[in-house]
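Dear Dr. H.,

I hope your travels went smoothly. While you were away I took the liberty of generating a structure for the chain from your last submission, since the lab meeting agenda had it listed for discussion. I wanted you to have the full record in hand beforehand rather than looking at slides cold. The sequence, exactly as received, is reproduced here:
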Amino acid sequence: MENKFRYIEGGICAAQGFKASGTYCGIKKPANDDPGVKHKNDICLYVSDVECNTAAVYTQNKVKGAPIIVTKANLEKSGGKSIAVIANSKNANTCNADGVEKAQKMCELVAKELGVESEKVIVASTGVIGQVLPIEPIERAVPILKKGLCYNKHLEAATAIMTTDTVKKEYAVEFKIGDTLCKIGGMAKGSGMIHPNMATTLNFITTDCAVSSDMLQKALSEIVKVTYNCLSIDGDTSTNDMVVLSANGLAFNDEICDCSKDFDTFKAALYEVMANLTRMLAKDGEGASKLLECICSGAKDKETAITVAKSVICSNLFKCAMFGEDANWGRVLCAIGYADAEFDIDRVDVDLKSDKGTVEVCRNGSGIEFSEEKAAEVLSSDEIYILVNLNGGSESATAWGCDLTYDYVKINGDYRT
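The corresponding predicted structure, in token form, is as follows:
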């Protein structure tokens, strides 16, 4: 998609009419309980000045967190309308007998503070699975969150949803629909338990562009397929993943109600935000030292390109090779070979690229001579591009991931305790 967009600051608050807040409420008791220690935010709230058309996609895991069950029910009851989102970290509220009750209670608490219907509140949680979510800290936090709402507190919200993330993840752009300037921005969290199939943790996107509910859902579903669903950290599809897209229309453009040039522009802007958030999620994979980006070109159709790119990114053997800075291109061919797609393996070319140069390693499905020294230099970078050309068509796709390191095992060896 052609880049017609200008990056802007503001994340979830970049679009007109969205305010946010975040605080520490103590959902999980910290290791250091010294009252003088400043703890990281673990709950956030963001609110639109007016009602939003809202679209969402959810994890495909058969085990779904209570917040997903409640959010889906709320959006169905409200006809795809929302005005607020509350999200917490450190506890997923999943596989709990009272999980739905607690998730509903979170919505009710926000609704009471804001004076709105509870079905117009979206709820999300992330963290440890199977531990009862204490509601008392949240009851105390909601009035604080409401009081702290501000149009520039996107950072407080973005940090509140972090778990093993090492950096906050935000991105926003501005674009034009006709002569009207619109904005779209978002925040995401995720570092581990990430694998394609919508699944990608928690992702929240807001826009002041006026888009109908049906077209908003269509745009989100299409762009998820080529961004978040093309991301894999460790092959585990989470139980709580969701993407929520809210449009409040405060840019006052003519509402986008059908497939048109304006709809294509909106989708391109949405792709810009979601692709950049996806890339940030991949780079901050648990224990990761390298971002891996596989670009598959020359495919007969989009599905083939996506399938091949994802197959390479999901290969644990290849991920290990990248950690070791070993140009073991045979692992790329192996992953391409078991991809569930039709193409001629004898026409496949592979290059490895970084800011330190490019090394050609495979032509027409066979290895070619290359300098191991040059390859080692290329792979010493912290961002590696795997360029796969199927030489069988004009379609392309990108998948994102990271290397597999010793630290991944250390982080997940005692995650719960």
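Two observations you may find useful: The chain is about 30% helix and 25% strand. The first strand starts at residue 6 and ends at 7.

With kind regards,
E. W.
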